[in-house]
Every structure is written in structure tokens, then in C-alpha cells.
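REVIEWER CHECKLIST
Item 1: Sequence provided? yes
Item 2: Single chain? yes
Item 3: Sequence as submitted:
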Amino acid sequence: MSRPGQKKQAPAPPRGLAAPTQITASQLQDTVGVGDMVLLDPITEENLVGNLKTRFNSNQIYTYIGGVVVSVNPYQPLPIYTPDYIFHYTGRNLYELKPHIYALADDAYRSMRDKNKDQCVIISGESGAGKTESSKVIMQYIAAVSGKGVEVDKVKNMLLHCNPVLEGFGNARTNRNDNSSRFGKYMDMQFNYEGDPIGGVITDYLLEKSRVVHQAQGERNFHIF
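Item 4: Structure as written out by the authors:
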């Protein structure tokens, strides 16, 4: 996330989010195990894995390690990406509510908008870990909390709708993942001084071109083919 120019600091843009109706305080604050694994004692591999497993079994797929969010792919839809959740995580301290990727997205967005600091979110993991979905969730959050307007909404829609095209030409079914990204992606989103998206650039690299002419047993070509 970056700005083309550093101008005066502006107040927060209108959110345009409806008041929450379906989420209770306990859903946002009650945690199973340890939400931030920096607090584990002792910090051992056994305790780290055990804590992640305990939380995963309670559908708490996000866990912090300081400012890092660890995500365990649930391989099923979870009702934690609704407008109500976006509303509650907007403008909150990173550790105020239970771990969530929305908290990380909000912290990065507010630091860019209010402190005039460019931000970079790095999403890494093995195939099938949920990297592609995580990037979609972050973009969904930014689109929801930034300003409104004809031109702004046009840019948001372009950024959100580019994913199916990228996945069509760059994702394929593998033995481990039905929608595996076979390339690296760097997305640079540009914002004005009010925090509204005004454009973006997507750079792809390391595309697995050999898949066009040859696929391993049990795997398929890129979705578009």
C-alpha cells in the first residue's frame, strides 16, 4: 500500500458500514488456548503445534506471533468474514479483539492513512495454505473500509475483479490443491491522501510455463485451458 504523494493528513473517510446485529462480545473476545504465542511458556515446537491444534479444533484459525498472523486453512467456509466482523475490527488495536486477518489489514491500512507510512503485507505458506484466499480477504476489507464515490468504487471493483482473471491464467489443479497458484504475485495498491484507492499495479513472476505443455500425473493445466 502506498501513496503517490504525501499531503496533509485527512480525517478518516466515511465507512459506509451498517451497525452490527449478529455478533456478540464473546464471539470477538473469548479465545481458546493462547491467542499470541509469544506468551507461551515454555516456547517449544510441541507447545506451538499443540496450541494451533487446540485453536483449530474450535474454529479459531488465526493466531498471533507478535505482529505476525498465523493462519491454519480450515478447508471449509467459516462465518467470520461478514460485514459485521469488518465493522467490529475497524479502528481497533491489533490485540484488542481475538486474532483475525482483519485486524492485521486494519492496522496496515490505518498506518498508511493516518501516519503517512507505506505498508507491505507479506503472505507466505506452502501450497494449499490459503495464500490466495488471504489476499482476497485483505482486499475485501480495504474495499469495505475506504471511502465511497463513483471513481473510488470503480477502482475497488477493478482490484477485486482482477483475481478471477489472474487465477484463470495462473492457477491450476495439483495433487494437493484444486486452485493452486503457479506463480508469484506482487500487488501495489495506490491510495490518495484521504485513504481512498486510486489505482494499482500487479506484477507476476516465476510463472510455471511448463505446465502448458506437461502436467504431472493427477494434475491439470491452467484453469483457462
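Item 5: Key structural point noted by reviewer: Helices lie at 25-29, 45-56, 83-89, 101-115, 131-145, 150-170.
Item 6: Recommendation: ____
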